Amino acid sequence: MSLFKARDWWSTILGEKEDFDQGCLCVADVDNSGSGQDKIIVGSYMGYLRIFNPHPVKPGDGAQPEDLLLEVQLREPILQVEVGKFVSGTEGLHLAVLHCRKLCVYAVAGTLGNVEHGNQYQIKLMYEHNLQRTACNMTYGPFGGVKGRDLICIQSMDGMLMLFEQESYAFGRFLPGFLLPGPLTYSSRTDSFITVSSCRQVESYKYQVLAFATDADERQETEQQKHSSGKRLAVDWVLNIGEQALDICVVSFNQAVSSVFVLGERNFFCLKDNGQIRFMKKLDYSPSCFIPYCSVKEGTINTLIGNHSKMLNVYQDITLKWAAQLPHIPVSVKVANLQDLKGVIVTLSDNGHLQCSYLGTDPSIFQAPKVDSREINYEEYDAEMKELQKIIKEATKTQGILPKSEKHRDLIVTAEVSPDLDAESQAIDSEVKAEAVPSVTVKVTIQSRVTAQKPNLAVCVQAPLAVTCDQFIFDDLEPDSSETVVLSVFLKGNCSPSELEGSCMVSYDTPTGIPKVAQCSFRLPLRLICLPAQPSKAANHKLTIDTNKPPVSFLTIFPDFVDPSEEDQSNVLGFQFLNGSKTTLLASKTSQRYRIQSDQLEDLWLITKELTLRLEEHFKKQNCKDFACSFSGSIPLQEYFELIDRHFELRLNAEKFRELLSERAVQFRAIERRLLTRFKDKTPAPLQHLDTLLEGTFREV
Asked: Counting C-beta atoms within 10 Å of the first and last residue's C-beta, which end of the chain has fewer, N or C?
């Protein structure tokens, strides 16, 4: 615990229920302003891309509307954001955004604004690459020693390095002995890619070796092709560090030699270019992120390391120079130049707390007042106290009464979900194998108190749920006007969704050109994805929820799934999902417990969440404020890991099946060639000759 806190210079909270990780933060002069001031680029797993340019009036101020230069939803999770020279024909900086199955490169530009919010910023898609494999992370640099441009290397979840020469795909190579992806970086000094494998060792691969190795896309080769077109991918050097790595970074400063820094789970390593250890530091805490940022003394390098105790430690090589307390656990840390202030520390937490801070202490300006020897006038103090109490009383009476223009937003969007399923299902192109796929109607209403220009409504639900229409564009809304649209939601994919919540977002411009957003959320009925079914007595997976209140009859909290005439449904209930799997819910008659059981572990979640939500709503109506649910059992990690293993086994089997098909295609082409060679003279051959030929060929297959 440090006596000092990181001094808050500027901070904000990003979005709501959004997740962030190590690659979601980047700082750079992304709009090529030439001022030397960095912008803060943040991407989230919900697909939101935000660019900030903080300008606090005084240290500690929160974010102002003009600090947010750009906010756009890209509809796909953002794994990593980087800024570099990614577009051919120019040395300007561009923004690379990595999605699970796509790499997009954007140009960020601002136009001079004529309102109080300053310039308006937009992004323009320069090019994109659709990936054949699921991406994990990426790195960039002047691969092969190219001048004036940066190339991009993406590491896939199955161990393939995909290299892109800006607008074109170059080649792909599989890492040998791969199991799980690790952090990846590029060293321009040695022209090498450095990663940490699942064998807990740091590995370096030369770019030239990657370029001349056997192409990962080649499925079949003859012996002659194997010798002529490439060679096996060989590692340049290896260092066993004995633990998994959180991050890896290559730095080179004027006063220090080029070094490779590796942040492990319990140790911090600094390596030379050839893989030899320069030094290592054993950490007595669990680190979360790091960044080597400068060299203030010849031969040494300063490094910032954040940890899970909300601490930020400053090291000079292995010597701890400073420690400061943060208000959150950082998952990513950067150092930026903002508003002519150099060395601002930018940290990001996994739930979206973005903070710019600086180190140091604030001097105390308190001075002891001079002793006043005058006698106290108690009557005067009593009169002043009564006056203050009167002011406090009046303020308490009027608390919460605000002018209408401040209390109500300019534009309000509401979503109303129909209590009943659609009489005629509106589901289209559904992959569900059920006899009937239900749908439910959602009525969205937009009410505007001011003129709203170019209003655009977007409706989002979690896959595999889908909507009949997710985008609506309206004409300009006049003051005190409204628009209403109706759409239907249904289950499109043949599996259960992770949640039954949806959201509506309206983007519009005010008459002065200021962009604004209004949003709301809605909850879909459980009947949309499952039906009542006979309860099952036995199940492979069981979960017990404890409460502090007597059990509630299912006739009360699940009226849409029970038949009132059947009393045996008061404490036991069955659910069948549209994909066919079943889940049973039981309420104890003697204790305050509920049990959820199913043959599939993944089917427990939705019923458990629906149960807790309905119980909370029930006791809230009863004006009970101390209701609580708890889980005292052991977390089913073993079953969870088995589920992941089955997923990867299916994936590996699919890969082997595709390889087998490819091999069979080559062999059948060989059959075709043999048949053509045998009968090219068009001379009729005895049928037994053909049978013999085919029998020998298929024996080879």
From this structure: N
